[in-house]
Amino acid sequence: MNWAVAIKGACLAAMLALVGGSLIPSARAEDVTLTVWSHEADEPAKVAFRDQVASDLEKQHPGLHIKITWFEKNGLYTALRTALPAGRGPDVFYLEPDQLHQYVTAGYLLPLDDLVNWNQIYPWARAVWQENGKSWGIPQEVNDNVIYYNKDWAKKLGVVLPVGGQLSQSAFVDLVKKARAAGMVPIAQGVGDRPYPGAYIIGEALLHKLGKEDYAKLWTGKLSFSDPRVVEVLTWVKQLVDAGAYPKDFMTIKLGESFYYFYSKPGALMLPMGSFYSGRAFAPPDKGGQPADFPLGIMQYPAMDGGACNNCQTAGIGSSFVINAATKHPKEAAEFLDAMSTPASGAIWIGKVYEPGAMKTDITQFGGPHGAYLSELMESQKNVDPFIGMPLDLMTDGGCKDAFGQVLNSAFPGGLLSVDKAVQMMNAACYQH
Amino acid sequence: MRLWLSYVRRTPLLLFLLGYTILTGGPFLWVASMSLRTTSEIFANPYGLPRHPHWANFVDAWIGSNYSTYFWNSSLAVVSAVAGVTVVGAMAAHCLARYRFRSRRMIRFVILSGLVLPPQMLILSLFQILLDYQLYDTLPGLSLVYIATQLAMTVYLLEGFFSQIPQDLFDAARMDGYSDFEIFWRITLPIGVPAIFTTVILNFVILWNEFLYAVVLMTSDDKRTLPLGIMHFMGDHQLDVAMLATGLMIAIIPVALIYACFSETMIRGMTAGAIR
Amino acid sequence: MPQPAMGIRLPPAVVSWGRSSVDVWQPSPLTLTLFLGPAVLIFVGFTAYPVLRTFYNSLYLVGPKGAATFVGLHNFSQVLRADPVFWTAVRNTAIFTLVGTPLDVFGGLLLALCLFAGVPFARSLRVIWFLPVLMSYVVVGIIWVWIYDYDWGALNLLLHAVGLGRLEHSWLGDPATALWAVMAAHLWKWLGFNMIVFLAALHALPGDVLGAAELDNCGWIAKAIYIIIPMLRPTLVNLLVLSFIGKMMIFDLVWIMTQGGPLWSTETVSTYVYKRAFDWNTFDLGYPSAIAVLWFIIIIAFVLVVSWLLRQRDRLEF
Predict the structure, then answer these.
(1) A156: domain range?
(2) What is the pLDDT of residues A345-389, one digit of tens each?
(3) What is the pLDDT of residues C57-104, one digit of tens each?
(4) What are the backbone dihedrals phi and psi of residue A268, each rounded to the nearest 5 degrees, phi first?
(5) Is residue A307 a part of any domain in this protein?
(6) Which residues of chain B have a CB within 8 Å of the CB of A254?
(7) What total number of domains does chain C contain?
(8) Residue among C46, C16, C42, C38 at smallest CA distance from B95
């Protein structure tokens, strides 16, 4: 046998097979791949939730492939801002309400009024995503702003509160001073990678003092920051800052790191946070989660003297999803959004993430390892009058948002600015006379 | 040439050497040690040694985070860009150094002015241009951009060196009947090896770790280059310091190994033929 | 003068034919195209055209869906008169460059002299000291963020151990120290490169001069200044230029370590342009283009001033 010829023949045959094989279409005509970009890569519970919804939907729909790419929030926003103008965006992506205005103005979102089943979503949650009379995003996560605290440490300092209890303005300052004296870090907080955590205490105090209407006016530029009530609140916060409430490296601690700072090392008394706390905190302890026996307590933000609405509390809409206006698969995209919002999905959401969701579900009946936490959270919300929307969600001007992130979120609680300077800078950026 | 100093006089020098070595090498050892521990161990004792090395970290990181794809993408983009810019740059430098023609001064000035161009001047427009040419989010597009960004520096370094080569060699070669290209190939290039070596290394180091253009001009996960992949990995594991350290080690080890093997070659290349 | 490496056949010396050799070096169009063509093409396509386009963009305000309105020099006047962040960024970048460049280059020279003086383990030290150069900014940035960590970072722990505990700072969180902290990390990465280049240059120096210079501990500083540095001048200028330009453009390290904070104390022009273009809410490329153009003009002015001061006519070599 002529080996040379045989080998050449074999090679030729192999090449033909490869080429021929690749010519045979391997996908059927109706196969659709839906690309989804999502934040919360580092929250295993939410990853598990969305992955499960995706695979369940794929099973119901042969031919539908859902490809989720996970990002960290800042990375996601950067990717979106470069991909969308290039026409290379995903079909569905994660967005938060504070981004609504500019994405709608730039024309990157598809209106969802006729695409999605709105009966599954609470109307007040839907309202957050409305602009110009249309609904642009489907809300998923509801964040209540609370203060998490270490019950044991609080007891040591002589403070015992019922679930969802509230301290007065002066009692709070006292607590901070006592904590410092006892060698504890009073408040764990970090603004290293987000434009809002430093302003939790300020924001809620302003809400309590001003009441809902004036509070909304403040962030939309209709109320001046030199209003005496605002100045009073800022002066009170300055007291806290001067008493050493925040950690020394407040400016550089990242959001996720501040959780660890609170419940592990070095440990802190309080953590003002949204209820998305559970997403990271309930990861396994050796992956950075809360220790198993941590004495977690939940309290309200302090009541302000002469406050207009001391039982008000901000409830923000957190994770939400939108559809790219340039998508070629609007129907399938809408199906995915719907699938994430069914009552059954709501049950999975709460069961995994331990947070309320924007989808209508009956919250009272959940067990599981953190069921007790969830009951406490619901209990703490009993007498609360919710105000929907974080400050950044209410602002529309880029300069104002930037100032918020640099001044009220970062420099003022970081002790770098006086009350007057902060008022001046915020007014310059936000107040429209 | 060895210059010997007495031991007493050398002590401050030795202390300084030791200190600087710890400063440069220490962090790597620390990250290496962290990558073999768990996060809780690290926070309990940040500078301790691993008690039970957790090699599984590395497997998780490599598989779970698509590192091989990023590595491959980086290699493709950077190697082709470095090869491209060296060839194009050397030819241009030779031409500018050797020949006299009317627009020489102007072309030289224009190309060298690219040296002081801040990337911000280019990045926004490059973004639009690549879109127009359908090269957005493609590795060839990124390579071309890399060649363009490094061209000015390469031409600057090589032209300076080539123009120092004695003209006699070239005149003699010309009389000998060498063609233009042969002159380039047989005289400029061999003599220019030290400079070429240096630019290759510099370009490689800069482009391998290049971040800004890659962030703006690439979006698909499967086309990410290594620096982007590392950043993405960091975002995925914010609380898990051990995994972060593992991710860093995966980024460090291949580069360190390659360098350790080639450092002699590199130095020899940079000092080609010189007296030691 | 470097000698040719082995392997080329030097043509025999030939008597000049009386024709000026300059004539022969008039390139044919084919030669020009072959040698210069690719470079010019790439330059025009990926450098010149984008630059012109940036100039063009800066005259517009780009609104939603790419609708651009011509605003003339409005963007520029906004940047110059109404943008305090821009001036802060310029100041920060200037400080970073003017302080960082000499530290970088002369530090590298110092290290190279140490190795050249024949210390033990010179070869291994060379490898270790060069390692940071090869590392990605992501690696360098994260390592140094950990070193600067207030609670468990190496720097604060070291200060504490040495008894200087009261100097402990949040290095990256304090506007007074953040820029210097980033600069230290940047130097850590690049000293090794300058060292290697100087080392190569030192080895290329004529041996007899150095022999006469006999470096000993007492007088070596003087000998270094008066003999070695002048001989290294071309390399020195080369590295100063490269370092200067590299530092003017700094982006990656700042972005990873501080993102321009706290309170804009590490905001550089590149990070600010990036933020306005990609982080702000408007998808407008006109304003950041104006910033880029202004920055370009500032750099050109600076380079012209410096080169006028140096009046360096020599060709630069290794």
Answers:
(1) 144-315+387-427
(2) 888 888 888 888 888 887 666 677 788 888 888 888 888 888 988
(3) 888 877 655 667 787 788 888 888 878 888 999 999 999 999 999 999
(4) -140, 165
(5) yes
(6) 238
(7) 1
(8) C38
A310 and A182, same structural domain?
Answer: yes
CA dist C108 and C98 (Å) reads 16
Same domain, A261 and A170: yes
C-alpha distance from C77 to closest chain B C-alpha (Å):
18
Q: Chain B within 8 Å of A283 (Cβ-Cβ)?
A: yes
- The verdict on A246 and A131 lying in the same domain is no
Which residue from C minimizes the CA distance to A266? Answer: C151
d(CA A184, CA A171): 17
One-letter amino acid of A362: D
- Inform me whether the C-beta atom of residue A358 falls under 8 Å from chain C C-beta atoms: no
Nearest CA-CA distance, residue A10 and chain B, Å: 30
- Assess if residue C94 is contained within a domain: yes
Would you call C43 and B174 a contact, using CB atoms and an 8 Å cutoff? no
Using CB atoms and an 8 Å cut-off, which of residues 289-308 of chain C contact chain A? none
B269 Cα to chain C: minimum distance (Å): 9
**CATH code of residue C225:** 1.10.3720.10
- Contacts with A350 (C-beta within 8 Å, 6 or more apart), sequence order: A356, A357, A361, A363, A366, A374
Whether residue A380 lies inside any domain: the answer is: no
Q: Which of A22-36, A242-256, B118-132 is least confident?
A: A22-36
Any domain includes A374: no
Question: Does the distance separating the beta carbons of C149 and A251 come in below 8 Å?
Answer: no
3-class DSSP string for C192-261: HHHHHHHHHHHHCCCHHHHHHHCCCCCCHHHHHHHHHHHHCHHHHHHHHHHHHHHHHCCCHHHHHHCCCC
Extract the tokens encoding A401: 């948002």
Give dist(CA B204, CA C243) in Å, integer.
17
Mean pLDDT of chain A, nearest integer: 85
Facing C283 at nearest CB: one of A78, A85, A247: A85
* Same-domain pairing of A407 and A261: yes
Quick one: closest CA in B to A267, which residue? B43
State which residue of chain B sits closest to C244, comparing Cα positions. B116
DSSP state of A121: B
> Whole-model pTM?
0.80
- Do A257 and A289 lie in one domain? The reply is yes
List all chains that touch chain B, counting a touch as 3 or more CB pairs closer than 8 Å. Answer: A, C
What is the number of CB-based contacts under 8 A between chain A and chain C? 69
Cβ-based contacts of A83 with chain B (< 8 Å) = 137, 219
Minimum-distance CB partner of B40 among A70, A257, A286 = A286
C278/A contact by beta carbon, under 8 A? yes
| Cα distance between residue C113 and residue C125, in whole Å | 13
Asked, for residue A264, whether it belongs to a domain, the answer is: yes
The string of DSSP letters for C44-89 reads IIIIIHHHHHHHHHTTEEE-GGG-EEE-TTHHHHHHHHH-HHHHHH
Strand A296-299 relative to strand A142-150: parallel, antiparallel, unpaired? Answer: antiparallel
Q: Look at residue C297 and tell me if it is in a domain.
A: yes
CA distance C29 to chain A (A): 40
Q: Alpha carbon of C177 to those of C44, C84, C167, C181: distances in Å?
A: 42, 20, 12, 6
Cα separation, A413 vs A423, in Å, equals: 13
Residue among C87, C272, C91, C110 nearest C187 (CA): C110
Among all residues of chain C, which has the CA nearest to that of B91?
Answer: C35
The answer to whether B232 faces chain A, any CB pair under 8 Å, is yes
Domain membership of residue C231 (yes or no) is: yes
